[in-house]
User: What shape does this take?
Amino acid sequence: MKKIISSVIKYIILIFLAIYTLAPLVFLFINSFKSQDEIDTSAMALPHNWDLKYIVSAMRDIHFFKALLITVLVTVLSVGIIVLVSAFSAWMLVRNNNKVSKFLLLLFISAMLIPFQSLMYPLIDMADKIHLKNIFGLIFMYGGFGLSLSIFLYHGFIKSISKSIEEAAIIDGANIFQIFFHVVMPLLRPTTITVIILNAMWIWNDYLLPFLVLANSDAKTLTLELYFAKMQASQYGNPWELIFPAVLISIVPVIIVYVFLQKYIIKGISDGAVK
Amino acid sequence: MNKYYKKWFWALVLPSLLLFILVILVPFLLGIFYSFTGYKGTFFLKDRVATDNPFQAMVGLENYEKAFNNESFQHAFLYTVKFTIIAVVVINLLALILAILITNIKGLANLFKTIFFMPNLLGGLALGFIWQFIFEVIFTKFFFGKDGLVPIDFLTNMTQGPIKPLFALVILVAWQMTGYMMIIFITGLNNIPEELYEAAEIDGAGAFRKFKDITLPMLMPSITIVFFLTLANCFKLLDQNVALTNGAFNTRLLALQILKTPSDYLIPDYGQAQAQAVIFFIVIALITLLQVYFTKKKEVEM
Amino acid sequence: MKKILQVACVAITLCLSIFFAHGCSQDSNLSATKISSKNKYDLYIFSSKGEISQPFKELCNIYEKERGIRIRLQQIGSGTNHLEPLRIQMSSSEKPSIFSIQGLRELIEWQYSKTALDFNNSTLESFKNLANEIPPNFRLTSDGKNNYGIPYSIEGYGYIADKQMLCDIFGENNLKDIMRDLKVSSYGEFENFVKSLDFYIKTGNVRSFELNGRTYMPQKDKVGLAKNLEAVFSVAGAERWTYCDHMVNIALGAVFKSPFELLNADNTQADSMKGALKKYAKSLDLKTSHAMVKRGPEFINVTSGDYNRAIKDFSDGKTVFIKQGNWIGPNISKLNPDMLKRLVVFPVKMDMSSEDIKRDDMTVDKFNRSIPVYVPNFFAINAKVDIKEQELAEEFLVWLNTSDVARDYIINKFGFIPYNAPDDLVLDSSLNNSILEYKRSSDTLAAVYHGVGENWSKETLGLKIMEDYLTKTDWQENDYNDIACFAIEKFKELKFW
Assistant: This one.
């Protein structure tokens, strides 16, 4: 009996907190179909009619499809670079255990301490001078900023796998890339998933770096479009009838991906935590 | 064998090293250099004379002096410390409670995990906009206002005044980050061998004793990670701060303070902003080193 | 899976190497790329007036066809974040030839860096003439002599009212008289008028009051628009710029003639603002005590104290006045297009005594019949682009302000009041015409607040007043005094570099 009561209590608490977690998203959803006036007067109610016109106009205002494409491109390419480059060097740093690699590891990892603010202005200056203040430059920069954490994660994992399989492959005469792609990378899969998830989450949602790099260009990421749409629609005040649908459509792709891949994502996070 | 790896060492480390040098190291060093010049964003200024050459505008420690004497920087610093302490405690406790609850139920655990983790995926800026509305309208009008469900004055108009926005930010950040930390705790809890509890039960230990003597010590590695992650994330928080109050009512956290410092002056003072950023870096580095030091010490003791 | 991964990796490596190659080649052939990028455009305009982006683009296209040149146009909203992108452009190799400066407070940076061209040094005769013909009170100047900007337009603000509303309250016979007398009335009379209106709205009873020495009274029965009235003023309490840039500017107008006087003000002059600032606080008190929303948390809430909300209340006829300028035209035309033809603007009155006024060319009477009419945004020319490009820029600005095509666009498509409007110009919007009337009779104040940074007005004074709105329901004489002293103290502390 006592057990049943305690588990009922547990469920009640969890359900309450789950509602609390989901409520803001529900508000977001129901208010994306309302006019400014209706949002003002009855924010909690379901919309009078499920009018898609606000979503449609928000899609136009934030150039949804273009921005989505750009955001996907930036995220995929950046994460690709990060995975490849950091796996390469983490592997080499582990396998060559000498002073140089110890120093390099320390250097890479200590960069995690550098706040973005302390290098952003010079970085943008430099990017402009070598004509990289565009999407390519942005991808390139993400490649750099994602390194530290990824090398750290890979390094920890590679340390724990024995190099006997690799050595067997070397003796068989496989070249370094064959070894890397056929032997090492498959073993690193759990860490790779973690690295992908952690970096993709951050890059997809980032706002400051795209703002500094892309503010003057026509190609903007979703978060940046969202910010500019809000600024443009009304220099002052809050145009909720634009903000809600714009936020909604900008997070829908993420939610969809999450629903399909949640198992991997949650596992990736827990694996990343244990190192 | 080792020779084989050695041969490829530089070739494979080079891409990341290059990226690192170009994207982080050089700008960072340049940034430190700029903090000693009259850097104004598009030009350099010393003694009210403009130049394009930073070497002609070296001002020594002037920017650091200005930063330390800058009231809004001091305020932002204290505000960030306050926020971080409260947020870290709240998030850690909440995440631990959630994790314990979830590991102790039979069904639906995965569903709950999925739900609690969801806010993590969404951008701080977008969420900030929604939460601003929730604090100013939903909380104020419908829930906690005079005619609301439960009148609690503190929870109304939470983005106003000097104190409330701090807690509004904590609520927002806790809502967002707790799920992530919960996952880490759950992993930690699942790694605790069941036998330990069984043994303790035989010894007649109560729930509290079990928690104190088994769960907590065994969970220490997870706690360390969560503590570090929340500390770092809260200390560097920016997007949510921008979206919620954008610094009104003296609610700038350090990251926003640095971002806004240039525009506090008619001639934008990027030099001082850069100096603030360097100070910011030193503080973060110190915190991390202390953290690593204490963790190492603890692990040795255990 | 493996195959895909492999292909992806190879592709990424390729991309990466291209980036490197790209970066390097750009670096080594800097001069070559400069020439190639120069070929992309002849004139680069960076405009921070996003509201007119579509018609401005059309206008530039017309000019491109007419002159056979290529214009690169970059437009961005005029919110607070336009400076950051502009600075990024200014430090790049492709610098704008024409860029926007929103008042004197933004000029300083570009003046010190020698980016903005002083038009006195211009080499193009037609442009020099254009620059010299700008009326002195509409110039972008930091000392009264230099001249850095060609105005986009002029704007004005004050208490805006609907003629029909006044007509329904006071009767058609009285409309003309009351409009004339309201314009010139003193603060004391205006205060009494506001209180009588409030009494009338709240109770439905009428009480007489005097304006300019004549006695008036609302009609006994509420008719027409008057039936819906809920308050005298519609106020956006969450928008600090309305009370701390615009409202304070009116008070500063009693002390300084122009923004550059404020910019160069010393501590003694700062102290001399005290009287005017106290009266500023008093008039804020009057306005907010008779607003739709009561002072308190609701008043500064982002929804109930929102700019759009305030305009909505006014356009719904719930209030008699809103303190705004002709920029609300587009909002009103969306919400209540008929109203746009009936709007007029009245001066914001402040209880100045002759001691409070420090200008030799200003009297209490003149102050109370004047509204701020000023230039919110200027075109500046970049002195750092080559001289040929500067001249192209100058030619464009001459064309923009003298040709018939451009004039038509400025008036009809942008909805602007041209700064060089001839005296007989009549515009579609009654609000714009109302502002032109003040300009013609020279009953104007300058944008003095452009002489001090937002750090003082919006960020410091603004927050202080917002907190007073939040915490103090009753404002007393000493509260006015506090506000004035605080403002002056912070003004003295403020450093520009």
Observations:
- Chain A has a mean pLDDT of 88.
- Chain A has one domain: 51-274.
- The radius of gyration of chain A is 23 Å.
